[in-house]
């Protein structure tokens, strides 16, 4: 077989060099074929190998009806040539397997990986300004979070917090949103892409997200990041109006969402309720705005236009619900205000009381009824079932003619009295010191 060598000058840098190209004639009648090729190095023609960089050269033949295609595949041992028939031209192709390093974004089965200029990836997590993934504009850049070069998406931990990265663009999700993570949980995302906690506004209301888990909190009373407390319902929404919580009811202002204390408020269904100093709904007797009211223990509604009994005492509520009491109830209530005042022999003022002095002061008795002996004449003596003496009855200890102590019944087996020197006005039980009989004043 004949072998022909053609030499051509080419320029590498500032020096002219000579290259040799070896062509193999494989088709009979191939004539007058001019072959031009560029190469970076000059190599021996032994064994039909050429040391070449990655180039593709098309060689046109103007005089032959057939052509030869030369495909060059460069390995570390050299360049081998394969020959095949073609219709119009000769093409020399070469691809370097161990030449320049892989750089930039490379698509993988799980996403994209970024390779630095030296072909390496950045170790660990990094938030970097890199060419935009999928863009043909070389001037387009975006910020990406990578882990050993692999771009990340979804909820990711970075710089001591958590952030959401778009699953399509891999860029930070910079708008208020409520998104589902790659593991199925839902999180509130702020306009800076950060996962939020505490009280957050979303979809026309407010929610609370746990500072540890970042998950929405349902049916709980929580303290906000600014210190105030709020109630959140079964659907996580902040609550207003009358709400049941921890075995009772509270009222939360529709404007501030804060718990309301010591106020009379209208519920979302129209009824009015009283809430005490601890925010709890009120039942029973309650002083409000200079008057006393009574709230039904079952319905919590204010009682009007009726008389009722509480612990043996009789009260009347007018059309506005203002409560007044009968003389007995008023007297007992007055006596209760003296609790803790010291015992003073012969005393009948708030500076000190003895037993009969407390009764005289509470009931407003005249001086004719200053002593225990005279007070036992105010009504009929009752000796049976003394432990069930009615509310406000006077309890006597001793004989009919010479009782030595008097107390005021509270209607439940207890009584208020001024016991003895060195003691104070207090409540005692008939279980430990039982009276002999009782008197209901005026009966």
From TrEMBL:
One of its GO terms (molecular function) is cysteine-type peptidase activity. It comes from the Bacteria. Residues 1-39 form the signal peptide. GO terms for biological process: proteolysis. Keywords: Hydrolase, Protease, Signal, Thiol protease. SUPFAM superfamilies: Cell wall binding repeat (SSF69360), Cysteine proteinases (SSF54001). Residues 325-443 form the NlpC/P60 domain. InterPro entries: KxYKxGKxW, NLP_P60_dom, Papain-like_cys_pep_sf, Peptidase_C40. PANTHER family: MUREIN DD-ENDOPEPTIDASE MEPH-RELATED. Belongs to the peptidase C40 family. This is NlpC/P60 domain-containing protein. It comes from Limosilactobacillus gastricus DSM 16045.
């Amino acid at each position: 077989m004949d072998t022909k060598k053609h030499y051509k000058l080419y320029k590498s840098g500032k020096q002219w060099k000579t290259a040799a190209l070896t062509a193999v004639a494989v088709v009979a009648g191939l004539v007058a074929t001019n072959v031009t090729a560029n190469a970076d190095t000059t190599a021996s023609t032994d064994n039909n190998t050429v040391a070449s960089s990655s180039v593709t050269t098309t060689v046109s033949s103007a005089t032959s009806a057939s052509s030869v295609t030369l495909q060059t595949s460069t390995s570390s041992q050299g360049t081998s040539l394969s020959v095949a028939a073609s219709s119009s031209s000769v093409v020399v192709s070469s691809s370097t397997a161990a030449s320049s390093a892989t750089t930039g974004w490379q698509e993988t089965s799980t996403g994209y990986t970024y390779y630095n200029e030296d072909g390496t990836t950045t170790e660990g997590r990094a938030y970097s300004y890199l060419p935009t993934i999928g863009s043909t504009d070389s001037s387009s850049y975006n910020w990406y979070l990578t882990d050993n070069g692999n771009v990340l998406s979804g909820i990711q931990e970075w710089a001591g917090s958590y952030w959401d990265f778009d699953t399509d663009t891999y860029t930070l999700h910079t708008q208020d949103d409520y998104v589902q993570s790659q593991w199925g949980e839902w999180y509130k995302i702020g306009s800076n892409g950060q996962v939020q906690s505490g009280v957050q506004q979303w979809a026309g209301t407010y929610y609370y997200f746990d500072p540890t888990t970042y998950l929405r909190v349902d049916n709980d009373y929580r303290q906000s990041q600014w210190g105030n407390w709020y109630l959140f319902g079964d659907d996580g929404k902040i609550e207003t109006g009358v709400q049941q919580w921890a075995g009772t009811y509270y009222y939360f202002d529709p404007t501030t969402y804060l718990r309301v204390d010591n106020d009379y408020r209208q519920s979302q269904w129209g009824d009015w309720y009283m809430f005490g100093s601890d925010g709890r709904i009120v039942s029973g007797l309650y002083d409000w705005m200079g008057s006393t009211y009574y709230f039904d223990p079952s319905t919590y509604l204010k009682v009007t236009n009726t008389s009722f009994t509480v612990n043996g005492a009789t009260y009347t509520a007018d059309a506005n619900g203002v409560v007044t009491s009968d003389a007995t109830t008023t007297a007992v209530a007055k006596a209760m205000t003296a609790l803790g005042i010291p015992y003073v022999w012969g005393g009948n003022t708030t500076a000190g009381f003895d037993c009969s002095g407390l009764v005289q002061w509470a009931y407003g008795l005249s001086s004719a009824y200053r002593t225990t002996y005279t007070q036992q004449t105010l009504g009929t003596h009752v000796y049976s079932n003394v432990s069930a003496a009615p509310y406000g009855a006077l309890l006597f200890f001793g004989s009919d003619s010479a009782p030595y102590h008097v107390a005021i019944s509270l209607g439940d087996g207890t009584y208020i009295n001024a016991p003895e020197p060195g003691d104070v006005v207090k409540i005692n039980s008939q279980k430990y010191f039982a009276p002999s009989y009782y008197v209901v004043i005026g009966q």
